[in-house]
Write a structure and sequence with these properties.
With about 450 residues, the protein is mostly helical. Helix content is about 40%, strand content about 5%. It has a five-stranded parallel beta sheet with strand order 1-2-3-5-4, with helices on both faces. The structure holds thiamine diphosphate and magnesium ion.
């Protein structure tokens, strides 16, 4: 029996959000493709970019940007997903089309998100795995300082979009265990979304033990939300034999699960029941499902379910920090999905043409935006207008003091350090702004004092 179409796409996820999601995936993949396979490249070496890392973050970012982000919020990105940020910024009218073909080109889009060198709004520069996860903690601290000392400054959320391998870094655990961080979350300022694709650089992590990680956040006083399965799988779990199917997937190793992502329906029917006592019930259950639905079901994880993500963002508490564990597939919807070696892999030109067909776009006009008079185009315009709104910024913004009275004497004239008065010494600049107007390409330090809210 085929699954009803409603189950193949979450009924509460608006169709327009799914259309934006597909375009974001296409644009992020095309930015990397163009840099490596279209732009002249005399050396023939890989230019760079990570299509699989991008793909696992697309649903998380689509639901965040187009449903929940507010102008006063700031986001720190998993470094390898920077093309997704540029794709979103492009759809929001914050990035000129001419930049989409410049990833890692001189003066073009940077390898990793850069506040000072990228031409579009980037809240935090990231690149070193783990640093981006914790940077917003300092942003939140800086905002508190500015609020308490100057009586100004926004109170928005600081989102960290974290790769699961970033949780290998010691700095992350120093931060989580620090009681001051749990206190910082009292106003709901800190939200981490962990892209749990169970893959790092070059392998499927065999025992990532997500529940243990979730328990560690909970023990440190965080609200923990786990988005494990999508609606399609949840519907199957509710049918006869569903309990056995859930137990089977819950208990299987990460490498075995990842292998199933690359199986045909026929192979799935053979492998999924397994050798356990629930095997016969699972075989009967999946015998009722048509091939495309079975293939879709096995990869239907919560981190790709727009409705589940939407509900998770809506349930963030404003009394403590929050960690959302979003189970995802690295390379989701790409031909390399779930492959243990997909971290640096690149789609071929033929695969990109096929992907364009699946995602409803034209490979010969790769930078096509969404029609302005379509529902998706209107949602992009409305989101852009909302995020640019200056309501939270005091007008005129107060000028920050040049010296906040805490500069250690020994560092004042130290060569190479930012002077008091440079952008980095102003706590209020932490997290930056969404206009992008103050950035100086290629220049790390901006010498004019920044004004609050920029
Ligand atoms: C401090 C540091 N150590 C190691 C690396 C090398 N490195 C690049 S990508 C990567 C793994 C990224 O995995 P994850 O964060 O899970 O993101 P994914 O690509 O799976 O989405 C590592 C370890 C790095 N960039 N920075
Ligand atoms: Mg990973």
């Amino acid at each position: 029996m085929p699954l009803p179409p409603a189950l193949c796409r979450s009924p509460t996820a608006p169709r327009v959000l799914a259309e934006i999601e597909s375009r974001v995936l296409w644009l992020a993949s095309a930015i990397v493709h163009h840099a490596n396979r279209v732009r002249p490249n005399p050396s023939g070496l890989k230019v760079g970019g990570h299509q699989a890392s991008c793909a696992s973050m697309v649903s998380i970012m689509t639901a965040l940007w187009f449903r929940h982000l507010r102008p006063q919020d700031r986001v720190s990105m998993k470094p390898h997903a920077s093309p997704v940020l540029h794709a979103v910024n492009y759809l929001l009218g914050e990035l000129d089309e001419s930049y989409l073909s410049t990833l890692r080109d001189f003066g073009g889009l940077q390898s990793y998100p850069s506040r000072s060198k990228d031409p579009d709004p980037v809240d935090y520069s990231t690149g070193s795995v783990g640093i981006g996860a914790t940077a917003p903690i300092w942003g939140a601290l800086a905002r508190r300082y500015v609020r308490e000392k100057i009586g100004a400054g926004a109170t928005g959320r600081q989102y960290s979009l974290v790769g699961d391998a970033e949780l290998d870094e010691g700095a992350v655990w120093e931060a989580i265990l620090d009681p001051a961080v749990a206190e910082l979350g009292e106003l709901g300022e800190l939200v981490w979304i962990i892209d749990l694709n169970r893959q790092s650089l070059d392998r499927v992590v065999p025992n990532i033990a997500a529940e243990r990680l979730e328990g560690m956040f909970a023990a440190a006083g965080w609200q923990v939300i786990a988005l494990k399965y999508g609606q399609l799988l949840e519907e199957l779990f509710a049918r006869p034999g569903g309990d056995a199917l859930r137990a089977r997937i819950d208990e299987m190793s990460n490498p075995e699960y990842q292998r199933l992502l690359r199986c045909t329906a026929e192979q799935l029917r053979e492998r999924l029941p397994g050798d356990g006592p629930g095997g016969a019930a699972i075989a009967r259950l999946i015998a009722e499902i048509d091939d495309p639905s079975l293939v879709a079901a096995i990869r239907n994880l919560g981190g790709h379910d727009l409705a589940a993500l939407d509900a998770a963002y809506a349930s963030i508490e404003d009394t403590r920090p929050t960690a959302i564990f979003a189970y995802t597939v690295k390379g989701y919807r790409l031909p390399v999905q779930g492959h243990p070696q997909n971290h640096s892999s690149l789609l071929t030109t033929d695969q990109m043409r096929e992907l364009a067909g699946e995602l409803g776009t034209d490979p010969d006009h790769p930078w096509q935006g969404l029609e302005t008079d379509s529902a998706a185009g209107r949602l992009c315009a409305a989101t852009a207008a909302k995020l640019r709104r200056a309501a939270e910024i005091p007008q005129p913004p107060p000028t920050l003091p040049v010296d906040i009275g805490r500069t250690p004497a020994g560092t004042r004239d130290h060569p190479g350090r930012p002077r008091p008065g440079s952008a980095r010494s102003h706590p209020a600049s932490a997290g930056g702004g969404r206009s992008g107007g103050h950035r100086q390409p290629g220049c790390e330090f901006v010498d004019e004092p920044r004004r609050l809210g920029e």
